[in-house]
Queue: 2 jobs
Job 1
Amino acid sequence: MPATPAWPPKSLPRLYVGGPLGPGISIMLDAGQANYLGNVMRLQIGDEALLFDGASGEWLARVADAGKKRMTLNIERRTAEQEAVPDVWLAFAPVKRTPTDWLVEKATELGAARLIPVITQRTIVDRVKLERLEAIAIEAAEQCRRTSLPEIAEPRPLARLLAQRDDRTLYFADEEGGERAAGTFKPGPALLLIGPEGGFTDDERKLICAAPSSVAISLGPRILRAETAALAALAAYMAVAGDWA
Ligand code: SAM
């Protein structure tokens, strides 16, 4: 749930709830959400909130019943259609917990469709708590007014990632040099691949470069931290070939 905003809030509180949502449907919130709307945002019977389910857009709802840790809202009307984010997947070698959390939050705001933790030879963290990353993505989507949620995929080894990516273009961020990102990104299904803090090994670089429709991209002359490189690549893609273009 978003942090406590200034009072009164500029916009209606917004929550992700399990669907389906539709006119006249009544939604009972879980205890945490009821506590947030009731005790943090101080919503009372008759007050409005925005709900989305990741599939049917955003809906205006009104508080119908409220108690200490319970709340029911009735759906009234749709306030936003379901968005179609660009078909861009972001594969990143997990780094420490805080920068990984940060990466997931920002990649959700930037519009990534799918986030894939990839295990490489120099990956320092090979286990990630998917539930935790999903909760971070939900909070970021609530905040940035997304109506879709990025899929957070199971971590996988580099070889499996390269084998299971259907025919999308692989843009491989290579600190050792590559094509200028801005001139290379093209609209269409894309996979952005970011290496670990220690970088890819030469064997891995050969494997990636040998993969069909893979292209090495440069993110400029400076060596970026892995989490910075991930967001720089995603922002550049969105600006050139995504929904900012
Ligand atoms: N170990 C490498 C080194 O010291 O040269 C640096 C790796 S960097 C911290 C982590 C990842 O971010 C790299 O594997 C690459 O995918 C990406 N990256 C960082 N800076 C980049 C740049 N200027 N161009 C392209 N990719 C970059």
Note: Helices lie at 31-40, 97-110, 130-144, 158-163, 181-184, 202-210, 226-241.
Job 2
Amino acid sequence: MTSSIASERQALEARARSLVLPKGFVFGAATAAYQIEGAPQADGKGESIWDRFCRLDGVIADGSSGDIACNHYHLWREDIAVMKDLGLDAYRFSLAWSRLFPLGAGRANATGFAFYDRLIDGLLEAGIEPFLTLYHWDLPQALQDKGGWYSRETAEHFANYAAAAAAAYGDRVKRWTTLNEPWTFCWSGHATGEDAPGLNDGAKGGVSASHHALLGHGLAVPAIRAEIADASVGIVFDLNVVEAASSDPADVAAARRFDGAQNRWFLDAVFKGRYPDDMLALYGKLLPDIRPQDNAIIAAPVDYLGVNIYRRSVIAEGTELAPLNFQRIQPEGSYSAVNYEIWPRCIYDILHYVSDNYAPKAIFISENGVATKPETVSSDGHVWDDLRAKYYVDHLEEVSKAAGEGVPVKGYFAWTLTDNFEWAYGYTTPFGITHVDFATQVRRIKYSGKIFAIIAGEGKTLTETKPSARLA
Ligand code: BGC
């Protein structure tokens, strides 16, 4: 190692140590069932739309699937040991709906329920708080066959599934997230077809799926509360800081439409009880059947908002996704392996955007992280992902700044705990703070994980009671 690299690393570690965040701030890492579990048919699990989608030709960059992924279904104990080594306070994970209800509704699968019992008990024994997400994109295929998120019935099935999960785990799990990123799974899955279920129905598909998914969220919130009196219930949105590419009124209007579709459509519905007027007018005939009671259902009060933030979007007028009619401009700068601009300020701006406009009681950064090309273990046995390590410090400094200004940000989850199946990118763009050798399933904490452990275990945020992370 050259002395300049060594001194850069020392400087980064010093910045990590001196981060100031509010007392009680939660540090965690996040995953999603389909991206890590594998074992798609084990113990009576039903097929999901991702199991089906990955079988199609040409949809996944490397032709792979989540069939094995991190084999977390069998290696979950090892993953909890990694979390302990990282000094995490919390772990955000999702349930595979079709493990619990193989057909999405009706017959429950006791062995599927038992898997998450073991995982939750293991987390609690390790002193790690479970943050449970009910839906991270893997709809049971049987429900897709009946219309999926185009059908109001899916929303009702979702609420029933939420109630059953809450009844099973609510004695031990208090943090509940209904949906992860409805914008992404509704639009990428139904408008452009890049994600499961692979439908290419344009904006009409995106809007219809979004409304029914939000309805499912709104029905699930009281269903969870009915089972768990002290539940803290929220939803996770992927939000972007949207900027117009120029002051040209056409670009400004396109940026406003994009912000309306990705951010305001979801935030207004949940926090203001109605969809934004400009977007209702824009979608017009594309809108699904929105019934009079739907707005109130969707606006069921939540305890927190989870924000997944990966980038800003610089938008000009264009032709994508009519009637949104935008194009994305790539400002000069550095970009991740999935071509997202690395721009730390986005996290500060988005925290202010949601806090200033919607005033949620609490905000969690439920995902933030960066993709690289696949990494190798160096001869000294380490994975030196300096770019990612710096990314975390840079972004957490922005969180610290927003928190210092009074934004109620209560925690931060790194995306992601371990390298895993990155949807349409397969295994070509890992995001993990822990490296996984997919041939051997050996896990190895990367340099970024070590930096994260410093922050989680030794940063200024620490209360005296917090054990320091045990890392060499
Ligand atoms: C999703 C994750 C995904 C990550 C990185 C988020 O959109 O919730 O499942 O892996 O971004 O692309």
Note: Residues 3-465 form a domain with the TIM Barrel fold (CATH 3.20.20.80).
